[in-house]
Amino acid sequence: MSDAEALEFDVLKEENMLLKDDITFFKEKLIEITETEESLFKLEKERALLDASLRELECAFIAAQSDMLKLGPMQHDAWWEKVENLEELLESTANQVEHAALILDGYHDVQDKVDKLEASLGATSISEFCLYLVDLLKKRVKSIEERFQACNHEMHSQIELYEHSIVEFHDTLSKLIKESEKKSMEHYAEGMPSEFWSRISLLIDGWSLEKKISNNDANILREMAWKRDSCLREAYLSSRGKAERELIDSFLKMALPGTSSGLHIVHIAAEMAPVAKVGGLADVISGLGKALQKKGNLVEIILPKYDCMQHNQINNLKVLDVVVQSYFEGNMFANKIWTGTVEGLPVYFIEPQHPGKFFWRAQYYGEHDDFKRFSYFSRVALELLYQSAKKVDIIHCHDWQTAFVAPLYWDVYANLGFNSARICFTCHNFEYQGTAPAQDLAYCGLDVEHLDRADRMRDNSHGRINVVKGAIVYSNIVTTVSPTYAQEVRSEGGRGLQDTLKIHSKKFVGILNGIDTDTWNPSTDRFLKVQYSANDLYGKSANKAALTKQLKMSSANASQPLVGCITRLVPQKGVHLIRHAIYKTAELGGQFILLGSSPVPNIQREFEGIADQFQNNNNIRLLLKYDDALSHMIFAASDMFIVPSMFEPCGLTQMIAMRYGSVPVVRKTGGLNDSVFDFDDETIPMELRNGFTFLKADEQGFDSALERAFNYYHRKPEVWKQLVQKDMKIDFSWDTSASQYEDIYQRAAARARAAT
Predict the structure, then answer these.
(1) Structural domain of residue 245, as residue ranges?
(2) Which residues on neighbouring strands pair with residue 257, listed in sequence order?
(3) What is the pTM of this model?
(4) DSSP string, 719-730
(5) In a domain, 502, yes or no
(6) Which stretches within 254-334 are classed as H helix?
(7) I need a surface site. Which of 139, 155, 273, 295 has the fewest CB within 10 A?
(8) Is residue 704 part of a domain?
(9) Residue 382 sits in the same domain as residue 479
(10) Do residues 308 and 364 lie in contact, with contact meaning Cβ atoms separated by under 8 Å?
């Protein structure tokens, strides 16, 4: 190769290297363009999301306008919160628009790079295809920019329209609030909820205890509160935001004496749903209390202030600026008094300042000193009523934990002049009677020698006293929770108190409990997958399908009846029959769900073994726990519900089951006998027949009842449907029970007035 050829080769080689560099550079630019195109697609996607956000804003605003028309006098706070949320959403959308604009500015830089790349390409010998590609990309960038600008313009227009609408909404809302406040001053007191009047009552009681008003003025104001006097309401509303003294003065100016046909009733109890619930007692206190309040009575509750209670279920919880001193074990102890409303009822919570920390135990019952704890509480509850100088008509105490109230009232406080009230005592279960050595009565100031007698408080066991017996002897009214149970406890069911009950039979009555029909309502139950009613049973089958799927049970045969059981696994509930029911249901080709656990270790282990035995059976499920949400679903999903109790003072599950269209199969005892009537019993009117019953606590009796239920379910579906609908329409509310209680209260109060 000559020197000239070598030189030419080197030049070509250098040009090729430059060309290779240009190609490499161009490839990099093409990659950038590709990335730019991807970014532009993302921008377009973001624009679509912004469009969706705008549509959501429009929907939210339309919903806000619709809801605004429903604004009531008590709803404006919620509307203000909704407006604030909409404003936050508007601000967020504006920020997104600004962010999108910044991205667009970045794309202008991309276009500049494309222009430079085009110039670079023109200076090289790269193929026309690349020039065409660059031009095409420029057009795409321009098109996307134009679309984005149009979208941006439309978005700004929508935002301006929305801002204008928000201003109009604010103006309208302010006008509605003013009109609402004006109307609230004009309407009569009946328009205010029970929660409002409970709060007023607690205010008055707090002022009385704190000596800010006289006892006489407090009694007058309480009377006005339970009559729901509109003047009292107007005084409260017009004094909002003012000093407490001004509010007190405005109340006192219009306090005029009056009379009321309603009663002042105070329940002293160890439980109340939902704030402190262990068993059915808690449901009785809240359910009966609300029903009596609806009838125009002033109802108040006194509870211990447990450390473990559900504080989030109490509204307006506050401590009073007063300390109630009470006697115990030869000394005086201070007690803090807290007030709040639960389920619309005014409640007093007693917090002892006793070194024993009686209610700081992380549980309600089961302590070694329960007798001392609740005798202390009973004494303070009466001391609170005495010091507040309330004119109470009825003091209603429940179970052995507050049975001390009856002898304390008549042997201690009546002697101090606090004697206008009459005592009602309800025993919810005679299995629990509160026995202790006689000398333990002295803790709360009761006279041991006076009470340790066979006709007063001495138990059948030598050297012990029985506080339930004392309450029966000392109370003006004694009740239990069903008529049949009242008959049963006059014999062996009384657990040693049958003779005492016979002696005091004239004041002893059984009143069937009700259920909270607001909580247990299949047409509104938030725990159900589908709400339903007696007139539309589709939701029942839908809930059955949902529950069996949730529990991984078979759903292949929709005609299989589902048997439910929700219970504590204790001997009282007939655990041997529950065990048998599982196997019998499987034998009959049905499905079975058990929800519940046992505090008895060997029973819990036994059912755990049964659960293991059926773990691969897709028709049987044993859920050995308690789950409130799941209980609602089981009531709704089950076709039949078993309650094979050995004894059952009242029972609530059979009533709830019927309300949810689950036909009960129960043993004829206690409250079960008063609420479930056999479908095949021709001695009973057809309109009352609502389930299947058996008498003997054996497998044969249970089998007969369950087989009859299965027979109707499979062979007479129309008859079964009519039975389900009839059961759902039965009124198990507290209204009937409350009327019966109100009647015996009134008669006792009338006798008290006649005696003065």
Answers:
(1) 190-253
(2) none
(3) 0.69
(4) HHHHHHHHHHTS
(5) yes
(6) 280-294
(7) 139
(8) yes
(9) yes
(10) yes
Longest dimension (CA), the chain: 145
pLDDT at site 297? 93
300: which strand partners?
Answer: 266
- How many helices (H) and strands (E) the chain has is answered by 23, 17
Structure tokens at 356: 């024993």
CATH number at residue 159: 1.20.1050
Rounded Cα distance between 722 and 687, Å, is 11
Residues 676 and 576 in one domain: yes
> CA quadruple 378, 380, 386, 388: dihedral positive or negative?
negative
Strand order of the sheet with strand 508-510?
315-328, 331-342, 345-352, 298-304, 264-268, 394-398, 422-426, 477-480, 508-510
- How would you class 177 by CB atoms within 10 Å of its CB: exposed for 0-12, middle for 13-18, buried for 19 or more? middle
Residue 44, both tokens? 């377009």
- Cite the DSSP H helix spans in 314-446: 370-388, 405-408
Amino acid at site 657: A
Q: Please state, as a whole number, how many other Cβ atoms lie within 10 Å of the Cβ of residue 572.
A: 14
Give the pair of three-digit tokens for residue 290: 């609300």
The phi, psi pair for 352, rounded to 5°, reads: -65, 140
DSSP 555-621: -S-TTS-EEEEE---SGGG-HHHHHHHHHHHHHTT-EEEEE---SSHHHHHHHHHHHHHTTT-TTEE
CA of residue 475 relative to chain centroid, distance? 33
Query: Could you give the 3-state DSSP secondary structure of residue 695?
Result: coil
Q: Write the CATH number for 393.
A: 3.40.50.2000
> How far separated are the first and last CA of the chain, in Å rounded?
143
Give the C-alpha separation, 527 to 631, whole Å: 9
Number of domains in the chain: 4
Domain assignment present for residue 718? The answer is yes
Query: How do beta strands 591-595 and 315-328 pair?
Result: unpaired
Per-10-residue mean pLDDT for the chain, 756 residues long? 60 64 68 70 70 64 54 49 61 62 59 58 54 64 67 66 64 59 44 76 83 80 74 73 77 57 93 92 95 93 97 95 96 97 96 96 94 98 95 97 98 96 98 95 97 94 90 98 97 90 96 95 97 96 96 90 97 97 98 96 97 96 94 98 97 97 98 98 97 97 98 98 98 95 94 84
Place of tokens 């219009």: 254
* Chain-centroid distance, C-alpha 284: 15
The enclosing H or E element of 318 equals strand 315-328
**Residues 181, 204: one domain?**
no
Structural domain includes residue 230: yes
d(CA 387, CA 395): 15
Tokens of 61: 């605003």
Structure tokens at 238: 């017009």
One domain, residues 604 and 714: yes
CA dist 729 → 147, 689, 709, 724, 739 (Å): 62, 13, 19, 9, 20
